Amino acid sequence: MTQWxxxxxxxxxxxxxxxxxxxxxxxxxxxxxxxKKITGxxxxxxxxxxxxxxxxxxxxxxxxILSAPVxxxxxxxxxxxxTVILLxxxxxxxxxxxxxxxxxxxxxxxxxxxSLISNSAKIAVLVLGTLIILQTLGVQITPLVTTLxxxxxxxxxxxxxxxxxxxxxxxxxxxxxxxxxxxxxxDNNYQGxxxxxxxxxxxxxxxxxxxxxxxxxxxxxATFTNYHLPVKEITLxxxxxxxxxxxxxLVERVTIEVAKEVMAEIAPQLIDNEPFIRxxxxxxxxxxxxxxxxxxxxxxxxxxxxxxxKKLHRRYQQEEIIIxxxxxxxxxxN
Length: 334
Fold this sequence. Notes:
This protein is α+β, with helices and mostly antiparallel strands.
């Protein structure tokens, strides 16, 4: 019985060391790094979550097996099991790190990360790690890869729609025709922000907080407007009509001054883009023109028009510029 004392002590030590390492050392180190706000620290700590405990427990079992009075063949089997668990945990850490840092990279370049790319990277790492584990166990992976290739062809024929969506998703991401964070309007008039592109669907969030789910293959072949390409800034236009008695030079000066005030409120960084007007029509009741000014993105058009109407109305009243009412002839018959 005493010959099992040391192996049991190794197991208990491994468990205690794992608990202390995870609950005390790991958590304190995590809190310390969080206060320093080191870039990528959240990804690293997420990747190593629970791994300190697992690895220390495995170390305790490994030394317990070496010191235990068991037959060599049983000892070898147990050591291989520990090796497989260790290699899989390392693969999982690498997969988490890869997916996390790819998400950060795509976020910096596109504004929001796409789960398609990060998840594909995780799967690739997990598959590669699994093949390494099988080779470590002495399994010939060449016939396995060949079998998987043939099986993949059969499965691919059965899942043509799914694969079409998968490759369409890759096409959308790589071509950068649509990116997460972009505001798009589809040919069926649905519109909103692209929040994610996964292996099957593209998710679009409307301003009403409803979610539109579009299959990737449908979006790749659809006609849509991307209001964030080539840049987010767009030109807001608003049509105005003033009376024929108006001083058009005064109208132009006042209107541009008001437009600059609005730009200073909603798009100060674009103030160098001078707003302008173009007179374009002698209407039945007014001389019509269009005001053009730059705003940050498509949704700023609403607040821009709102402010323009209020400020123009107030300023025109001050300058005695009249926006005429439509006049109609009314004939009364006895």
